[in-house]
Design goal:
The protein is built from 9 helices and 12 strands. The chain has 320 residues and is an alpha/beta fold. Strand 1, helix 1 and strand 2 form a beta-alpha-beta unit.
Length: 320
């Protein structure tokens, strides 16, 4: 088997239907301008009451290597680190929440960015399926989402996902503002190892804020060139997640997550402020999100200019 250029790790737990969709969206049947030998998918599934299993995983996409872990913890961090250890490529993709549909040129652009700069950190903006973020809508549930996806025709044109989704609060102001996190990102394997991987001290259900910590550590590496894909997206499917389900307990859960994140960072969390290099085409479906980004970006840059402050204060050589 040819050594791949890219290894994408997908962590799965109690989301069989959603993970099947995710893997199809990462397959060469759906991804454009890539070859089967370009990349591999490493699926790491933790035990649950809703197991995807190897047969369904390998049927959903090509070049899948499936690993089942009888993991009794509640965090995906150990599974993510395990998956990265199996990776055969020098460039890796990280899908910590396996319930993420992606658009059709994500893999192509990740590979392109890695050729441009082997230390690129490629970030896919996040969205939620539905008219608002799922945790803000108590009426949103799986049956509604299944119908929404069926009407969209996403399997024939993945960019139609933009038409049935809303921006995630992790990047609510768009691509000209700092991101809090990315649930679909790509980086050099060496960079992942340099930061010690996903910190397994994040032991709260769902991993707490491990995504925020991981992205911040990677983005602040001096070697990292931040590349954002404005015309692509990572779309969250409903699966009863700890922070993506409407619940009276959610404010307390989020407060616990923030406290653990600050304790492990040694200070309150701030989004990394590195200036992004924007890469890739933008379809008509994604234009409204880009238009929102421009509007919010102009407001932000004007405010910073009037204050005499730098818009990208963490970047060693910002153009703005």
């Amino acid at each position: 088997m040819t050594t791949p250029k890219l290894s994408i790790v997908v962590v799965v737990h109690r989301m069989a239907r959603q993970a099947e969709n995710t893997l199809y969206s990462l397959s060469t049947a759906y991804q454009r301008h890539v070859a089967p030998d370009d990349y591999e998918l490493i699926v790491v599934e933790n035990a649950s009451s809703d197991v995807l299993g190897e047969a369904r995983a390998t049927a959903a996409a090509n070049r899948v290597r499936y690993f089942f872990r009888d993991e009794r913890g509640v965090s995906p961090a150990p599974a993510l680190n395990f998956g990265v250890r199996q990776a055969r490529a020098p460039f890796i993709g990280l899908v910590v929440d396996g319930a993420r549909l992606v658009t059709p040129r994500v893999v192509e652009y990740a590979l392109l960015a890695s050729r441009m700069d082997p230390k690129a950190l490629v970030v896919v903006p996040g969205y939620h399926l539905g008219a608002t973020e799922q945790q803000r809508d108590p009426t949103y549930e799986e049956a509604k989402e299944i119908e929404l996806l069926a009407r969209s025709g996403w399997q024939d044109d993945g960019y139609a996902l933009f038409d049935i989704a809303t921006l995630s609060s992790a990047n609510a102001s768009g691509v000209f503002h700092p991101f809090m996190e990315s649930n679909c990102l790509f980086c050099a394997r060496d960079s992942y190892d340099r930061i010690g991987g996903a910190d397994e001290r994040f032991d709260l259900p769902g991993g707490g804020s491990v995504n925020l910590y991981l992205y911040r550590r990677l983005a602040l590496l001096a070697e990292s060139r931040l590349v954002v894909l404005p015309g692509e997206g990572s779309f969250h499917q409903f699966h009863g997640g700890v922070t993506t389900t409407a619940s009276p307990e959610l404010p307390g859960v989020l407060a616990e997550h923030r406290a653990q994140l600050a304790a492990l960072l040694g200070h309150p969390f701030e989004s990394p402020k590195r200036e992004p290099l924007l890469l890739g085409a933008v379809t008509s479906h994604a234009l409204p999100a880009l238009g929102h980004s421009v509007e919010r970006g102009l407001s932000r840059f004007t405010r910073f200019r009037n204050q005499g402050n730098k818009a990208w204060s963490d970047d060693p050589d910002p153009t703005e």
